[in-house]
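Question (not urgent): is this output format expected?
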Amino acid sequence: MAANRTPIPATKAPATKAPATTLAWLILLASAVLEAVWATALGLSDGFTRPLPTLVFALTATLSMAGLGLAVKSIPLGTAYAVWVGIGAALTVGWAMATGVEPASPLKLLFIAGIVGCAAGLKLLPAAK
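Got this back:
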């Protein structure tokens, strides 16, 4: 009797791999962090005369641009670029204020929070079809 049974097709287990857009957003966020690193290293390079900050700048700028390039395969260019610049700029200024290179003020913090909020808002918008 077992030979007369119709086999039941095996169902595929749900994929555990993150969707491409989620991965693209993570790459974009990492690239924005690297943007803050290269911008800070650029300032410390003293016109590319100091070897270590110059090397950090070159390496992180390359990786940051490569990440942005990968992210725009799944995220519209305008959105990706705005988020990349906004988050990178906010982190750069935040680091400068935290290390005492740049003075902090409540109004400056408010505007930086606005930049981050706008970048987060772009992520929350529904994806185009």
